[in-house]
């Protein structure tokens, strides 16, 4: 068999086709998956079964729906069987560039609509709690208790479908099934009216391209062609009109699809006072005029006039928060229908590649899971390659265009190679740069447009897309080459230019578009369906705190330029220029998506997400616990007294001077490895010398120290000291800051780590003050806590208990889980208890061993029968800060006791737990007291703040970057959660 043509961004060695070829056709049920080999770098293992989902409900439903399919859909109506056979069993031919071609729906699209129908029509599963209890196994039977009433008000189903896997077609099939079922089945619960909701204008415009005028439902040969959605024999029965958000008026005789941006459904009374800028962003709604709000109000009224509706949310990861305006708008539609005697929402369908909340937890109502790895194995999307580079250092500059000089040139190098390959088949390749801020995006765009010596192919062909653009579109060139180009200038962009810029962003794939490079921030994470991105340079700092998904970055380049991959077809790849700082997060996040999995075990303990809320069936007043809100025990203060040169030398005393003439190898070793197999695809050595500007070094290091210490305005205090330290102390010989030899050393990791190690403690000693804790705000009751989410698994279970006002107690580990039944025993001296968790939890501030301010979250609150209050901590992972946390908790308890009820801190050990075997909580308190005393009087451990961490980062080949840490007072609900 002839080898498949390869269109690749970076192949300098022959590619093993078996390592990147699809394992099955896109329309076939997955029968295998790739798993990482036992040894790194070796070809992947191909496991002869489908990759199990991490969701128990999904795994159960896959088997049930497969059996239902193989038995010809028993229990389904005639309408359902007719549609399913037409869509998936009959042959379809649609017009193609070279004549008619065969059309087949992807298996993930088929599975999505089949699962919806199976649950709704056959099993009549109408509530999320029912979904968890019936299909989630014993673990999720408890999780069903964690579904609040508002989330159970109507049927919901979430479909996790990887970027590029065809969510829009799945929506069209769901709409067609519901419409015909409502039309032909006498007792049908389904709707003939639909609300299709986009999160912003970019997604709205994409949906409009498919749904406006009902295009997606047209016969394949009509108006440029739709999909085979409506059986020809039922074409005369199809009577649906599409109403766009700006055309709310008028009447329709049949069914209606309302296509709208979510902002048009918001309550107008809640939009008053919003700045117009909110509506003039690149990704958001287009206008903020009263007429738009009037149309939105009329749209809501018209939707509410129908007896029943189905809601479909595109890019539905935005709906995770029950209290968000998005969910309020959907609830208002449901209530509006019911006020007029209707049934309300019959089903809500949520589609997203990443249906997760802000903590990275998958939606509990997920019923289908097509992870990125499955889309890769099926040839639906490009094959992702991670390019690993050694010594990928940042430059010493405040201007991002020069700070990331090495990253940008490396990305340009790889994109240029891709351009040469794709030009052979007359297609363009696009370079995508993901920035951390709009300011960085502006600076990088200017550099790439104005530096023809380094980026000759991108001069004037780099476009900047973000929400705070200033400038205008101008026409450049003449004749057939005349093109719109965005020119950055002072002054806000006009509505007309903004619309034209959006249009330009949607047409970047076109050969007529002059743009070859896109620079933006993370806002281009959805709805932006450009297919020609072949190289991605991520500069954004991915962090576990922000829960930014690596797949959203990778997703900008996943869509294929050609049709889906098939045997003998074109193999497409996308290259991400990786960075050591991102490597671990990429590995963790993409492994969760099934891209670089270990051999998956279907029996591996699973976890799910539950809601923790005050149970309305319990007596909250009797079980309530009241917390005092105290001021912080440690606070940051302005640095009034600057350190001296003697202080600097004392901080450096235990370190060795650095050689000034150390030769730093600036050659970068670049390896391109398969994301799914780790197999080496190419190895390059690229000479990209670092650009270092000595004059900026002092400013740069001051900004690093400010970031580490969370203090601003340090330059007047330490700027001169840093320069003197570099010139007189740091190196083996004195040197001027402007010495040419120093320019090549200032960006080296060893220089950065030594500067941080010396100056960070000096600043912290002068900016952190210990204060007496005292009542600061009125006490708060736990019964007023809002609903929050928690993970539920065999290892970290959520437990039901009678003596808590909450529906469940989330436990971390076996000791917590073992303590809960003991606290819940009758007659044990405990009147009420609760888990200290969620965003409103009590966090006690303290100073870590390395000098950083942090917060500590005790595990439980307990109220005794005698009215005494307890902070309870179960013995967790030992670390250098355990004793510091204990001392902070004791100090908080002493201060809280002065504000009202007596508080006591209890540190529960495994041996102490045995003392509670008789049931008395007082026995536990006495048995654990010695362990607490040992902790409180433990000798404090010292330690430098930055050198070890910096050295580790230095070995990874970059300037040390400090980790941001939060600070909060010891009041309930304050600040980010620290280690506990």
Write structural notes for this entry:
With 980 residues, this protein is α/β, with parallel strands linked by helices. The N terminus and C terminus are likely disordered. The radius of gyration is 30 Å and the shape is globular. The strands form 11 sheets. Strands 1, 13, 14, 15, 18, 19, 20, 24 and 25 form a 9-stranded mixed beta sheet that branches. A 7-stranded parallel beta sheet has the order 8-9-7-10-11-6-12, with helices on both faces. Strands 31-34-35-36 form a 4-stranded mixed beta sheet, with helices on both faces. The chain has 4 domains: 315 residues, Rossmann fold (3-Layer(aba) Sandwich), CATH 3.40.50; 210 residues, P-loop containing nucleotide triphosphate hydrolases (Rossmann fold), CATH 3.40.50; 212 residues, no CATH class; 105 residues, no CATH class. Helix 1 packs across helix 3, helix 4 packs antiparallel against helix 5 and helix 18 packs across helix 20.
Give a nutshell description of this structure.
This protein is of the alpha/beta class.
Number of helices: 27
CATH first level of the largest domain: which class? Alpha Beta
Oligomer: single chain
CATH architecture annotation of the largest domain: 3-Layer(aba) Sandwich
Count of DSSP strands: 36
Task: Looking at this protein, list some descriptive labels.
4 domains; 980 residues; 32% helix; 7-stranded parallel beta sheet; globular; 9-stranded mixed beta sheet; disordered C terminus; Rossmann fold
Strand-helix topology:
Layout: E1 6-7, E2 33-35, E3 45-47, H1 56-70, H2 78-88, E4 92-96, E5 99-103, H3 107-122, H4 128-135, H5 137-143, E6 156-161, H6 167-184, E7 193-198, H7 201-211, E8 240-244, E9 255-261, H8 290-304, E10 308-314, H9 325-339, E11 344-352, E12 366-370, H10 372-377, E13 383-389, H11 400-403, H12 405-422, E14 430-434, H13 438-450, E15 462-465, E16 470-476, E17 483-492, H14 495-506, E18 517-520, E19 533-538, H15 550-554, E20 571-577, H16 580-592, E21 607-612, H17 620-623, E22 626-630, E23 634-636, H18 645-652, E24 667-674, E25 680-687, H19 694-709, H20 715-729, H21 740-743, H22 749-767, E26 768-770, E27 775-781, E28 788-793, E29 798-799, E30 809-810, H23 814-824, E31 830-835, E32 844-847, E33 853-856, E34 860-864, E35 869-874, H24 882-899, E36 903-908, H25 910-914, H26 921-936, H27 947-955
Parallel strand pairs: 1-20, 6-11, 6-12, 7-9, 7-10, 8-9, 10-11, 13-20, 14-18, 14-19, 15-18, 19-20, 35-36
Antiparallel strand pairs: 2-3, 4-5, 13-24, 16-17, 21-28, 22-27, 23-26, 24-25, 29-30, 31-34, 32-33, 34-35
Helix pairs in contact: 1-3, 3-6, 4-5, 8-9, 18-20, 18-22, 19-20, 19-22, 22-27
